[in-house]
Design brief:
It is built from 16 helices and 21 strands. The protein has 501 residues and is an alpha/beta fold. The chain has 2 domains: 87 residues, 2-Layer Sandwich (Alpha-Beta Plaits), CATH 3.30.70.20; 361 residues, Aldolase class I (TIM Barrel, Alpha-Beta Barrel), CATH 3.20.20. An 8-stranded parallel β-sheet has the order 9-19-18-16-15-12-11-10. The chain has a 3-stranded mixed β-sheet with strand order 6-20-21, with helices on one face. Strands 1-4 form a two-stranded antiparallel sheet. The relative contact order is 0.15. The protein binds iron/sulfur cluster (2 copies). The site of one iron/sulfur cluster has 15 residues, from loops.
Length: 501
């Protein structure tokens, strides 16, 4: 007995009176759900393959289709839910680890939604962003502890290398291989137009994208794929990836089937070989080892690029961040447990790591307590969904935020969470040429620019409402935040008061 006896998760509902049998759905579905039946003279559906990506629904010219979640459920209870029972069946059939994509979907607290933002009323009036200048630019990197002057009273300005952003948001790491060429092209173009950064992820940098170098963060992960001197010097900053929020404690794996053509060349590995990034960097077992890599990368780039160290938000994140700040890194990137991914073992994705809000607040506080907050900038990511999440993150202590899932949504992702299959119907998480060409980079970058410009307007309105006219003045300003429905312990870690206080 295999898994086939499980009733499909989704049902394809076709309105026969509207269907004109144009077979668009058949051509659009990479999962081969739809097929024309010569014998019956109608379109048929194999629902067991449907992942509810909504591609056929969106493109059906007569709106004849809808996909609904099946209400046929196993005899579940609060302990043995329908999903849990089906997972056991799947593993009993396959003997394998369950794989998923995107972030942790479980109903654990989303602290952003339990934090509210202040607004000015009678005194300290709000600022109208349409009439008054507002500063959304930020720079990331080490800052001096104090202002120093030379003998003539001039300010001594020997800043360490920085990256400058027109707003406190960047597109976070997504490798060429896990996402398509056209998705990368969209991100690179949009970052350049917006004056922010995108991130190569661990797959190296395709030669076509060197032109976007001033808006590129190049990543060095444990697999060192595509890492060479030109690559390191191409970007505006270098990121060492120690961990990732969606799968803390384990490495990455891009199957050999996806290592073809340009991807194999860019990663500098043979076609068809699995791209496995080990869980640890095999040369890093201490902060001293990390320091050696930080300075090797600085040396290789003549000390002209800031170095970011990216870690997953885990239990002792504050102590880890303190070590990273002392390693010589310029920026710490912390990735929360809701961060997305192209593929992760389901058990890891759903059970490992901690919420970014708690991690961010505790790291900022620890670095302040130790007097080393100016030694590093903090970038937080892991399900930043909107301008208000960005504003709350800055007020909790971040210098900027990484955004990935929201960027993919702008490109057309419908969060079907099956990126790991490589059959993304929206041309994003796939290398199949017929699917990749569905994403037009010009339209993709325009939509990303629109999204970020909309967020920029909202950020200005939110901070203007607080009577603040710059991101710099909002940083770590936790007095602007109040919690609702949180315990004393949660409020204390977040460093904020309860609403009404
Ligand atoms: S997988 Fe997507 S395109 Fe295929 S039937 Fe389901 S919703 Fe439609
Ligand atoms: S990127 Fe594609 S495969 Fe992944 S969740 Fe989005 S639509 Fe689905």
């Amino acid at each position: 007995m295999g898994v086939d006896f499980i009733y499909p998760e989704f049902e394809v509902i076709r309105n026969e009176s509207r269907c004109i049998a144009c077979r668009v759905c058949e051509r659009q579905c990479s999962n081969e759900v739809h097929a024309w039946s010569e014998r019956r003279g109608v379109m048929m559906s194999d629902e067991s393959r449907c992942v509810n990506c909504q591609r056929c629904v969106s493109l059906c010219p007569t709106r004849a289709l809808k996909i609904v979640r099946s209400d046929c459920r196993l005899r579940e209870n609060a302990n043995w839910t329908d999903a849990t029972i089906k997972e056991v069946y799947k593993q009993a059939g396959s003997g394998g680890v369950l794989l998923s994509s995107m972030g942790n979907p479980n109903p654990l607290p989303v602290y952003w939604d339990r934090i509210l933002i202040n607004a000015s009323q009678v005194t300290n009036p709000p600022i109208d962003p349409l009439r008054e200048p507002m500063e959304t630019r930020v720079s990331l990197g080490k800052r001096p502890q104090r202002i120093e002057r030379d003998d003539e009273g001039g300010i001594i300005c020997d800043l360490q290398p920085q990256i400058e952003l027109s707003m406190p948001v960047m597109f976070s790491a997504m490798s060429y291989g896990s996402i398509s060429y056209n998705a990368h092209a969209s991100l690179a173009r949009a970052a350049t137009e917006l004056g922010i950064m995108y991130n190569t992820g661990e797959g190296g940098l395709h030669e076509d994208f060197y032109a976007y170098g001033p808006h590129t963060i190049v990543q060095v992960a444990s697999g060192r794929f595509g890492v060479h001197e030109d690559f390191l010097n191409a970007g505006a900053a270098i990121e060492i990836k120690m961990g990732q929020g969606a799968k803390p404690g384990i490495g990455g794996h891009l199957p050999g089937a996806k290592i073809v053509g340009d991807i194999s060349r860019t990663r500098m590995i043979p076609e068809g070989s699995d791209a496995i990034s080990p869980a640890p960097h095999h040369d890093i077992y201490s902060i001293e080892d990390l320091r050696q890599l930080v300075f090797s990368l600085k040396e290789a780039t003549s000390y002209r690029k800031p170095v970011i160290v990216k870690v997953a938000a885990v239990h002792n994140i504050a102590a880890i961040a303190s070590g990273i700040a002392r390693s010589g890194a310029d920026i710490i990137a912390i990735d929360g447990f809701r961060g997305g991914t192209g593929a992760a073992p389901t058990r890891i994705r759903d059970n490992v790591g901690i919420p970014i809000e708690l991690a961010l607040a505790s790291v900022d506080q620890r670095l302040r307590d130790e007097g080393i907050r100016n030694d590093v900038s903090i970038v937080c990511g892991g399900s930043i969904r909107s301008a208000s999440d960005v504003v709350k993150a800055i007020a909790l202590g971040a210098d900027a935020c990484y955004v990935a899932t929201a960027a993919l949504l702008a490109l057309g992702c419908h969060l079907c969470r099956t990126c790991h299959t490589g059959k993304c119907n929206w041309g994003i998480a796939t290398q199949r040429p017929d699917l990749v060409k569905r994403l037009n980079p010009e339209i993709g970058s325009e939509r990303l620019v629109n999204l970020m410009n909309a967020w920029r307007h909202e950020i200005k309105e939110l901070i203007g409402g607080m009577g603040i006219n710059s991101i710099e003045a909002l940083k770590g300003n936790r007095l602007m935040l109040r919690g609702v429905g949180l315990t004393e312990k949660e409020l204390s870690i977040l460093g904020i008061n309860h609403a009404g206080e």
